[in-house]
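Data availability (excerpt). The following record was deposited with the supplementary files.
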Amino acid sequence: MLRTVKEDILDVLSKSVEILKTDEHPEEVLSELSDHVIHDASIFQDDDSVSIAVLIYALAKTIGDCIEKNVDYSRLIKSLEKARDLLSKNDFKRYRTTVRETFNKIRQLNKKVGVYIHEALDRARIKKGSKMHEHGISIARTAELLGITHWELQDYIGKQKYFDIKEMPVRQRLKTAREIFK
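Predicted structure:
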């Protein structure tokens, strides 16, 4: 694992633990935090950044329901702390095992609160894939990194509206086209 990626994941894990312990509405902040990890995933295209981005996003979706239904999620905090500690000690194998176990704990919690984590994780992967694609990663590579199909990702991306694209007036488009083909 690259040092930059490791440091960023450690920072995200530490912030996640802090947010879960202190914030009254952690789901919004955690969701924003998962977007931050996408930057590393888009640059380095590594599995660890992608899995943490999806984990934090799934956690954000789960925590909201836990708070609403007064379900204890302290096991998730301990699991994130364990992952952080293992990663800081460069124990990558146990770190990755702990991340997988954390996904399982989220699944178990969601059985209690009535949310289907499998669907939430799939949506999280697809949504994060869209963000990676916005950062310039091909659909094929993004789908491969996230373990989803090209079709799922293309379907989601095709339904998105990008409001930052401004339509150019017809006269300006014609002028630009003529300049290109001179």
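Summary of structural features: DSSP finds nine helices and no strands in the chain.
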